[in-house]
Amino acid sequence: MDGENRIILNVGGIRYETYKATLKKIPATRLSRLTEALANYDPILNEYFFDRHPGVFAQVLNYYRTGKLHYPTNVCGPLFEEELEFWGLDSNQVEPCCWSTYSIHRDTQVNNYIYIYPTLHHFINRLLKYLYDPLSPHRFGPIIYRT
Ligand SMILES: [Zn+2]
């Protein structure tokens, strides 16, 4: 029965539903080890309750579903890290598309090359695109003369 394979997670008052198999996708994490013996399990409602940030959890669950971890835009870096730590996940797994956002929102003590590099790379790319964009009124890239 499909119902037996499904699981309800109530995170901060928002109910998320997924397959038990989905939560096994990332081993050795809090969600991969859920059992009904845990205090978080409510046998009457047949759901697990966690008093954690529901917005971050949406991305956490998406990570289990897709294998890709994206950074939620509406939270700050330390909060994101705290939530990931609670769920037993590693913030270094954030997808490249979200590196720059994540490193900007991250704490200001950015002294780690891994975090500063994607931001710098992104910035240089933007700058080059801007300079060489023929439609840009401010361009000072190679000038092409018409004959
Ligand atoms: Zn992303």
Automatic annotation (TrEMBL):
Protein name as it appears in the record: BTB domain-containing protein
Compartments where located: Membrane
GO molecular function, one term: voltage-gated monoatomic ion channel activity
Presence of keyword Cell membrane: no
Keywords, ordered alphabetically: Ion channel, Ion transport, Membrane, Transmembrane, Transmembrane helix, Transport
Record domain BTB: where: 5-105
A GO-annotated cellular component: membrane
InterPro entries recorded: BTB/POZ_dom (IPR000210), K_chnl_volt-dep_Kv3 (IPR003974), SKP1/BTB/POZ_sf (IPR011333), T1-type_BTB (IPR003131), VG_K_chnl (IPR028325)
Top-level taxonomic group: Eukaryota
Topology class, membrane: Multi-pass membrane protein
Keyword check for Transmembrane helix: yes
SMART domains from the UniProt entry: BTB
Annotated source species: Ranatra chinensis
